[in-house]
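Co-fold these.
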Amino acid sequence: MNGTRDTSNMAPAGPGGLDPREAARLLAETEREARRQFNLSPQWTNLVMGAVILVAYGSLWLTTRGQHPYTGPSLGVVALVYVAVAVAFAVAVKVYRRATAGVSGPAVRQQQAVGVAILVSFVLGSPVLQGALRHYGASDAIVYGVIPAAAPLIIVGTTALGIAASKADWPQFGAALAVVIAGVVAAFVGPSGAWLAAGIGLFIAVVGYGAADTRRHRRPLGV
Amino acid sequence: MTADALDAVIHAPARLRIVATLAALPDGSSLSFTRLQDILELTPGNLITHLRKLEDAGYVTSQKTGNGVASRTAVALTRRGRAALDTYAEALRGLLDGLPAAQ
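Predicted complex below.
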């Protein structure tokens, strides 16, 4: 269906009076619009998330670079990171609400459960580890550098990896794997380098997933 | 193959768009009447008429919940409807593939 067919040899219009070529065009156009309407991760949100990641992790890396001993990011940068996370969360909620407005059924409930699982692993995973390490006397470089940079990526990444595998969603699986790898690298490059490794890994995962998802959505379902 | 091989219930612009839109949702999901109307930009009367034809063919189901202003109608594609769209798309593909490409 490349739109280059000779209409003089076209089959007659169908029972509804609709030309077959026109029907094919209408079907492809409707599928494209429907997928755009129900898309949970449109390309623009991936770009916003990518920018938020670069600003947040870049600021953390820049303010902690060259600290000896490691004292952690400044309060201003911590506030900036919280704002960035709030912006990213608000964008994700808005897109989710728009995409699922009026939609109901088991798939929506499954998406909500996935969202809760990821949120719980993000909120609980790293603080628990940080608290335990602080309790056992680990240094600031570990408690406020390496762990908050690496642990959320490893914990949330492995959670997302399992979810993606169960749905056979391979672009999501690839993105989750990139996040886990970034977390592993971040765990071994020192407290400041951890922020850089985490930021680069997350950026690649989010933008790469966005590109793969866009390519997948461009493929026609029907004709 | 001729255009007569195409399913007459689906082969109408509004009904084709309704079925294709509902098919973009995961299996078992339903869409509210108002959201479907917003996406397709059809009048309520027009949408009801076409939904009725699709329901008669067993391609969609609609379920009304609540009363008065709180009432909500959810529309879903049935398995039969999804299969009919697949068959329709296949027939359309065959029809177009049998035609010579323009020079």
